[in-house]
Design goal:
about 0% strand; mainly alpha
């Protein structure tokens, strides 16, 4: 019997590393966001929206550009 449709179980092993990286970056960025008082370029709440809604690029952007040095 031939079925035409999307079979997630076939692609899950390929997608799993990307999902893990995305969730790890988001968790790290959210933890840092919660513990930091000062931010660069944008306000605290705008960074939160970017971290949560912009996949992979949002957490990376925050970690590379949004954090202000504590020095």
């Amino acid at each position: 019997m031939v079925t035409s449709g999307f079979d997630l179980s076939r692609y899950l092993p390929l997608l799993l590393p990307f999902i893990v990286v995305q969730l790890g970056l988001m968790a790290l960025a959210l933890w840092d966001w919660a513990h930091r008082q000062r931010f660069r370029y944008l306000t605290r709440w705008v960074w939160l929206v970017i971290i949560v809604l912009v996949n992979t690029v949002g957490p990376l952007g925050y970690l590379l550009l949004g954090r202000e040095d504590n020095a």
